[in-house]
Amino acid sequence: MSQSPTILIVPGLRDHVEEHWQTILERKLPKACSVAPLEHDKLSCAARVEALQQTIAKIEGPVIIVAHSAGVMITVHWAQKYQRPVQGAVLAAPADLETPLPAGYPALDTLRDNGWLPIPRSRLPFPSIVAASTNDPLSTYERASQYASDWGSELVDAGAVGHINPASGFGAWPLAEELIRRLG
Fold first, then answer.
1. Known InterPro entries for this protein (predicted)?
2. In the list 11, 13, 156, 178, which could disulfide-bond 70, CB 3.0-4.6 Å?
3. Is residue 1 part of a domain?
């Protein structure tokens, strides 16, 4: 009998938001955990990659990563550096950090200075699904499609769902569970 995977939540730069679908998903699923918020170096890509590594290193057995926004970029940076087997990854609403972001988000210079750029474009060493919105303010659908192609990911059109976050009207996001099942 095979062991069921642990679902590892990788949040974006806003970390844990109570009404976010990732937080709701973590509470709902029996084998789920999350990368803890950083106390220092919150904009450091390297610090976030190391936080992901510290969390995943504690998990025994299969893992499915569920990342959102900048969490997707944390995951692809992590995959460039570490070799731990991963059963699969749901990469939701990847933030295009190479294009100027809307007001209220870090500037490109800040992201570049903190190690986020360039975004890794190598094929991921595990199965993955990029779920992209057709009207995401943080990435065009075309850009998300290019990421999916570069990473060897299946692309799922999530519809006109904004950034798939509370500001876009999302608390629970049932599609996330469906995509996890596809990787399971």
1. AB_hydrolase_fold, RBBP9/YdeN
2. 13
3. no
Decide: pTM greater than 0.85.
yes
Say what percent of the chain tops pLDDT 70. Answer: 99
Alpha helices in 82-118 (DSSP H): 108-113
Expressed as residue numbers, the domain containing 124 is: 6-183
Element (H, E) at 67: strand 63-68
CA distances from 156 to 28, 59, 117, 159, 179 (A): 23, 28, 25, 9, 9
- Domain assignment present for residue 139? The answer is yes
Report the 10 Å Cβ neighbour count for 181.
Answer: 9
Q: Which residue has the tokens 């210079």?
A: 109
CA distance 93 to 140: 10
Query: Of 140, 22, 32, 126, which is closest to residue 80 (Cα–Cα)?
Result: 126
